[in-house]
Amino acid sequence: MTTNKWGALKEQRLAGMTGDERKEYERAYAKAKLAAEVGERVRAAREAAGLSQRELARRIGTSQAVITRLEAGGVGATLTTLQRVATALELEVKVELRPTV
């Protein structure tokens, strides 16, 4: 039920936007979605490795708060940060560019 309310609210807001506003909204949404997806993958990999946020932070030379924000999707990770995380988790970073659907 909540999902329907949110979906309806989103549609109302989008309907009231100009074309430029809608494009900016879509760009911001895509950026936030990517940050959230990357954060979820980092969290899953960290947990699979049996590490706490604090231990991962220690291994890459940052604070636990940075790891918390990264995993929550609150910040977009740089490739350098992702490489440091991957190295600490004995993983590799793979970037794939493909056509949108």
Judged by helices, strands and strand pairing, the structural class is: mainly alpha
Q: Biggest β-sheet, characterized?
A: none
Query: What's the CATH class label?
Result: Mainly Alpha
Distance linking N and C termini: 28 Å
Please, how many helices? 5
% residues in beta strands? under 5%
Could you report the average pLDDT, rounded to the nearest whole number? 91
Please provide the ordered H/E string of secondary-structure elements.
HHHHH
What is the name of the CATH architecture? Orthogonal Bundle
Q: What overall form do the CA principal axes indicate?
A: elongated
Radius of gyration: 17 Å
Q: What portion of residues is helical?
A: over 70%
Sum this structure up briefly.
It contains 5 helices and no strands. It has 101 residues and is mainly α. The protein has one domain: 434 Repressor (Amino-terminal Domain).
Secondary-structure map with pairings?
Layout: H1 2-15, H2 19-48, H3 53-60, H4 64-72, H5 79-88
Protein traits:
101 residues; mainly alpha; 434 Repressor (Amino-terminal Domain)
Structure characterization notes:
The protein has five helices and no strands. It has helices at 2-15, 19-48, 53-60, 64-72, 79-88. Helix 2 (19-48) crosses helix 4 (64-72) and helix 3 crosses helix 4. The relative contact order is 0.11. The mean pLDDT is 91.
